[in-house]
Amino acid sequence: MITERPVIVVVDDHVTERERLRVELERRYDRDYEIIVESSPTAALSAVKTALVARQRVAVVLASQCMAELDGTEVLASVRRISPRTKRCLLIALEDWGRPSTAIAIQNAIASGCIDHFLSKPRTKPDEVFHRTITAFLQEWADTELRDSQESSLLADRSALDEIDHFDVIIVGAGPAGRSAPGSWSEPKLRQWSAATTCTSCGQPTTAS
Q1: Which one of 122, 131, 175, 181 is CB 3.0 to 4.6 Å from 127, fit for a cystine?
Q2: What residue ranges define each of the domains in the chain, with the CATH number in brackets?
């Protein structure tokens, strides 16, 4: 059973910027989310793992790109492995914009899929540009994780499939990306349809057109 509020994890080893992040996030989201702010990548990753063990959803992880222990992209790559449904955002300090190393890090992170977005750290109080992105992240995450109306997965065990020769409708997935199979197909034909609409490289369902 999932327990407690969803979690937002933040990591930044710069004291002033970390506290600004804490203030911005707690003022805006603390009622509905547990805000965890860490000073090191190791502590942040540990917080993600602890939350998952405690059956808490980790909604968003925000990581500063420039840190002494690990870069933000490395942190978010690890988050992707341990909690792939978590939204991952790379935070860029004002003085780091325009640096070639920052551009390269962002390009590589996008290409590898380890981040969902990147944005500037908060600059004002409140920083509505910052909050617009975070709110959009939380909305997107909630659409797939929290809304019962979006949950349309069909769960059936092997024995049930063996006993039933045909299905009227099969819906696979959730929300707009779910796939609907034509009615009254035999099970062998259903398997053939499922294989034809599954990505061969990643094994995930393709989106119905």
Answers
A1: 122
A2: 7-146 (3.40.50.2300), 152-196 (no CATH)
Residue of 54, 43, 45 whose CA lies nearest to 4: 54
- 55-95: per-residue pLDDT in tens? 999 999 999 999 999 999 999 999 999 999 999 999 999 88
The secondary structure of residue 35, as a DSSP letter, is E
| Positive/negative CA dihedral, 113, 8, 17, 47 | negative
pTM equals 0.69
Distance CA 6, CA 32 (A): 7
pLDDT tens digits, one per residue of 152-166: 444 444 444 444 444
- 3-class state of residue 89 by DSSP: strand
